[in-house]
Each structure stands twice: as structure tokens, then as C-alpha cells.
Amino acid sequence: MSEAIQRLQHLMTCLRDKEFGCAWDKQQTYQTIAPYTLEEAYEVIDAIERSDYDDLKDELGDLLFQVIFYSQIALEDDKFNFDDVVNGIVAKMLRRHPHIFPQGELSRFGEPNTLSEAEISVQWQAIKAQEKASKPKQSVLDDVPSSMPSMMQAVKLQQKASKFGFDWPDVMPVFAKIREELDELEEAIKAGEQEHIAEEMGDVLFAMTNLARHLDVSPDMALNKTNIKFRRRFARIETLLVAQNRKLTNCSLEELDRYWEQAKSEGL
């Protein structure tokens, strides 16, 4: 193991030391740091979207620290350690790449690989299916974690169902489904039943996610890009207002919309 990893592990051990460790770090559990793990993963994606590689380096370090943190807690609970995590993923990758590592051995690397990308994908899915066949489950959807972010979870559920033929044959019926769900949402809004409105809103979002999947677009990444664009354009509105010694609160919607259009025309 590299010296850098060993230093990081030692640092984590110090932070969790019962006598001299950090009061906050000592109190953490798998459950309490889970939200931070999700946050760090999104910050990695944000750095990639911004092509900020210095920031990406830092964010990857934060994400790695999360893995070290979980591993230290597990070590204290006599469940597993960081080496087990590393050895587990190495074994899994060897197992899932038999075309690269014959007989699952790193020492066999370097032999000719004749599989196409499509054949590799089929092989990968078959191996994953074999691995999961040994795990007890009630439904084919059990493999999709319910704690996964909702939009990502929707895509995974749809992909699973699609493998068993429960899917639209092409993208056009999805548009009809979206229109149907929008009509139902409109009816719910007219009825004024908040719980029903929320349910129908969920159906609309699920249908839109289905459309993104059929278009081979990540809805989460697509929305993230739009969020970044919104931030950029709104910041431009604020800059324009500052230059005119004006405040957001003193502008009408029509005025703000004109500034928005200017930001768009500037390519933001």
C-alpha cells in the first residue's frame, strides 16, 4: 500500500482515537456521514462540469476520505477494513473483465483481447447477473437502492423493468404519456387537493425521466447543466443591476426578463 494511503489511514485513526481524537469525528456513524458522502460525490461532478481540475483533485480527496472514514468505523466494529474494501473491488473487476484478465489473474494481463464493445457489455451484464443470483430478493427491482437520489433511482427502476419487456418500444409513446400525466396534474391542481397534486407531479417527473432514458440522456446531469446555466445567467442579471445601481427587489418581472434575455444573447 502506498505511503500516502497509509498516512491518510493513520490520520483517520487519530481523529477517531477515543482519548485524544476529535469530538465530532468520534461521534460519527455510517448513518451520520452518509449525507456527506452524497454531497462529496456531487461536488466531484460539479468540478468535472466546470473543468476545474485543481478543484477536482481536492474533491476526489474528500470523497476518498469518506471511504477511509467508513472503513475505520467498520474496523472498530470488527466488520471489515480498508484492505478488504480494496481487495474486494480488485477481485470484482478481475471477475468482470475475463477478456482482459484470463482466469481472473492480474499476472495474465497482456494477452490479446478480441471482444467488441457490444460483446463486452453483454458479458458484463451476464457476470453481474450471476453475482446477484446468489443474493436473496423478493423482486427484480430490489437491486435498486431506495436511498438512491430519486431521479437516478427512477432511471434504474425503468431500466430494470425494461429488461423484462415492460417498456415503450420507442420514444414517441413517451411523449403521449407525458401529455397524459400533465393533464392529470392540471386536473389535480383544479381540484386543489395538495396530496393528489404531489402524486401527479411525481408521475410527471417519472415520465420525463423515462423520456430522458429513451433519449440516452442522464436526467440528473442534464438538470445539473441547466442549474449551472441558470446560476450563470442570473449572476449576469445581478451584475447588470449593480452597474446601474439598482436592486433586484426594485425590478419588475418584465424588467428582469429583459435582463435575462440580454444574458442569453451574450451567450451565457
TrEMBL record:
Classification via NCBIfam families: mazG, PRK09562.1
Coiled-coil annotated residue ranges, if any: none
Domain NTP pyrophosphohydrolase MazG-like: from-to ranges: 28-101, 176-233
Gene3D superfamilies: MazG-like
EC number(s) from the headed UniProt entry: 3.6.1.8
InterPro entries per record: MazG-like_dom, NTP-PPase_MazG-like_C, NTP-PPase_MazG-like_N, NTP_PyrPHydrolase_MazG
Family, similarity comment: Belongs to the nucleoside triphosphate pyrophosphohydrolase family.
GO biological process: dATP catabolic process; dGTP catabolic process; dTTP catabolic process; dUTP catabolic process; response to stress; TTP catabolic process; UTP catabolic process
Reactions performed catalytically: ATP + H2O = AMP + diphosphate + H(+)
Protein name, per record: Nucleoside triphosphate pyrophosphohydrolase
Matches recorded under Pfam families: MazG (PF03819)
Gene Ontology terms for molecular function: ATP diphosphatase activity
